[in-house]
Amino acid sequence: MTSEPVAGQAVVVATSNPGKIREIEEALSGLNWTLQALGAVPLPPETGATYEDNAALKACAAAIATHLPALADDSGLEVAALGGEPGVYSARYGNVGSDLERNVLLLDRLKKKTDRRATFVSVVILAYPDGHLETYRGELHGTLLEGPRGENGFGYDPLFVPDGETRTLAEMTVAEKRAISHRGLALAALMDAHRHGPPTRQTISVE
Fold first, then answer.
1. Is 108 considered catalytic here?
2. Which of 53, 74, 99, 192 is catalytic?
3. What is the full DSSP assignment across the chain?
């Protein structure tokens, strides 16, 4: 039994971040899935070396515990002048406790850098109870400001100006951000793949 999601079926969202949940609900509203909060299901720590590893850890744990398809993402900010940091450690950068503190730390480490290029990366994984995984990736390129602007969004959004824009992600509406964001692009790819029902699974023949 694959328990592939169809219209009206429950799909667990494996995150406790309300900002991510809101973005995912908005982005996938056209699929008519019933997105279900994670509830009391514990998630494993993000010990993976890649976004794919971390998203799979969370999605698989939720799918196994609930016997439902489960959706999880892992995302991060890769700063060129810092060799790709904070990357997969973006949410716990410097072991400080809040978004504001992480932003302050990042700006401090960039203080003497002239290269402000950065890329937001998101990997979304849909895991099935039978172990099958679907992987979707999105990237958004831009530059970092020397100070935060905007009250919307979360994480590093107040520092990040996408290429071709003058506003930070935190100065955009939810709909505007979703249309161009790394997570929005990954979710759009998932949406396209499932627009006419579950995508065909690839099979490998062994001779």
1. no
2. 74
3. ------TT-EEEE----HHHHHHHHHHTGGGT-EEEE-TT--------SSHHHHHHHHHHHHHHHHSS-EEEEEEEEEEGGGTT-BGGGGGGGGG-SSHHHHHHHHHHHTTT-S--EEEEEEEEEEE-TTS-EEEEEEEEEEEE-SS---SSS-TTGGGEEETT-SS-GGGS-HHHHHHHSHHHHHHHHHHHHHBTBSPPPP-----
